[in-house]
Design brief:
522 residues, alpha+beta, 5-stranded mixed β-sheet, 31% strand, globular
Length: 522
């Protein structure tokens, strides 16, 4: 349990510990051990902030077993030592390991230790910890991630040597995460298998928020013995794609593929996609290979619930697109994971095509722009509307400051947008949702990300926060676009989205997104 800012800002770890205590789990059925650390401040008086501690949940209390001192939760040795301590001192017929904190998918990995400059665990770090702790000889019954974006085929391939079942989310998770009262299921059936327990975890998670929740909800149970066919069929499809010279067709399909962890154009580099939706988008071009992927997924993902706007198949993969500015670094990390060579090679080829092809006439979508004239030929964007959501040509303002709502995610019931900001000196997004309940928008809070590890939930907006809004500023003569940082301000009242007519001094235009994920303005 790497508390991070989830605990120091929200007390989310304390809340989940309370759920564990409330579960009524009995020691004769299961030993629950918890390693705590990684946060500047615990929202309870029991857990110290100056050291990492291993606890046992027993008789409705947490009892300290061992202090490890001030160690880094983003160091693989810390994870290794926790696993070794647990298996040596509490031998069991079955073992499960839950990783609690932020997640960043296949490239960024897991965790954010506030006390060690945001240190995190890459997939290879976790592989090292699993290998050195002896899990190859004594595999876990399940490996769970109460974190964002970790239901990836790459994580599953690595975990398959050390666990039977993976339980994780494809998309971002709410701050409250799992409902740990699921532990009571072990009182009823101490012999329960990872698949059955996984279904209980998924159901309690989804039911905790409810079917009409304004949160993004995904959670999957994955049979790790069936993960190799998924990766193999992805490689077979990629082998075909590597010979396809119609980049335009491939890029349009990539643009339409369900993507997770999207942000504003300033931080849109998670690039995790649903593998099944990726295959469905390519079904017309390569039906046999795409259908083989779908079949492999249906055999591998044994249980999967979500509230997405399209059907999800329960496993994601890295497919570079919006984060091409980080491409060299991301692909270097990906190649070190030693996944399927054909798929890895395709990622490199697609990345190169994104950078060197120009199809300015091929657009994926168009939006209406509100421009503020700055000087001759230079205009500052102060509004952006999706053309299918225009209502009376009103434009959003945050407490009277014009803002740009960049679309980032949709579920069956909400649309989610990001406002790029500088908050207390750090880049972040303010997240806004629209739904039937909130037709004019609801501000969810602040989402930070660091080292590509994406925040679970949102930080609250404080009246003392120093804010500055980022605006794209475009030179219509040179074609250059830069990010302009507005004046710093603080809120004198609760953050609220308001709608106003455009100032008479402003002008309208269109923003076109092309298949290379570049923008043209007209």
């Amino acid at each position: 349990m790497n508390g991070s800012d989830l605990e120091s800002e929200w007390g989310a770890a304390t809340d989940d510990l309370a759920e564990m205590l409330d579960s009524g789990i009995r020691v004769r059925n299961a030993n629950v051990l918890i390693m705590t650390g990684g946060t500047e401040h615990w929202m309870n008086t029991a857990i110290p902030e100056t050291e990492v501690v291993i606890w046992q949940l027993k008789d409705g209390k947490i009892n300290e077993l061992e202090s490890l001192g001030k160690v880094n939760m983003g160091n693989p040795n810390t994870l290794r030592d926790f696993i070794k301590f647990s298996t040596a001192n509490f031998p069991a017929e079955k073992y499960g390991l839950i990783m609690w904190d932020h997640g960043g998918g296949s490239i960024a990995g897991f965790g954010y230790d506030e006390k060690f400059a945001g240190s995190s665990l890459t997939l290879l770090d976790m592989q090292q910890a699993f290998e050195e702790s002896g899990l190859r000889e004594t595999p876990l019954e399940f490996l769970g991630f109460d974190a964002c974006l970790m239901a990836t085929v790459e994580m599953a391939v690595i975990a398959s040597d050390y666990a039977r079942v993976l339980i994780a989310a494809e998309d971002l998770e709410p701050a409250d995460g799992w409902d740990y009262r699921f532990l009571s299921a072990l009182n009823k059936n101490p012999q329960i298998c990872g698949f059955a327990l996984g279904e209980i975890i998924v159901d309690t998670f989804i039911d905790f928020y409810g079917k009409n929740s304004d949160e993004i909800l995904t959670l999957s149970v994955i049979d790790l013995s069936q993960i190799s066919p998924v990766m193999d069929t992805m490689g077979n499809l990629a082998a075909k794609l590597n010979t396809d010279t119609n980049f335009q067709a491939l890029a349009i399909r990539r643009a339409n593929t369900k993507t997770f962890g999207e942000g504003s154009p300033r931080d849109n580099y998670a690039d995790m996609v649903d593998i099944g939706d990726m295959a469905m988008q390519l079904m017309d071009l390569y039906p046999n290979e795409a259908l083989a992927i779908v079949d492999a997924l249906l055999n591998c993902v044994t249980y999967n619930r979500h509230n997405a706007d399209v059907e999800l198949f329960g496993l994601s993969t890295f497919y570079i697109y919006g984060g091409k500015s980080e491409g060299e670094s991301s692909l270097g990390i990906y190649s070190n994971l030693n996944m399927d060579d054909n798929y890895t090679n395709y990622l490199y080829d697609f990345f190169n095509a994104l950078n060197y092809h120009a199809f300015t006439h091929a657009y994926t979508h168009t939006e209406l722009v509100l421009w503020k004239p700055v000087s001759q030929n230079i205009y500052r964007m102060e509004g952006l509307l999706q053309t299918d959501h225009i209502d009376d040509f009103l434009w959003p303002r945050l407490n009277n400051h014009p803002v740009i709502l960049f679309p980032i995610a949709t579920t069956a019931t909400i649309r989610q947008y990001a406002i790029p900001m500088c908050i207390n000196g750090n880049d972040a997004d303010i997240i806004v949702i629209f739904s039937n309940e909130y037709p004019y928008g609801k501000i969810k809070g602040i989402r930070h990300n660091s080292a590509n590890v994406f925040q679970r939930g949102y930080d609250p907006i404080s009246p003392t926060d120093e804010m500055a809004i980022f605006y794209p500023q475009h030179n219509f003569l040179t074609g250059e676009t830069v990010w302009y940082k507005g004046e710093t301000f603080t809120l004198d009242k609760e953050a609220k989205l308001e709608w106003h007519p455009a100032p008479s001094t402003h002008e309208l235009g269109l923003r076109h997104t092309d298949i290379c994920c570049e923008y043209q303005y007209s």
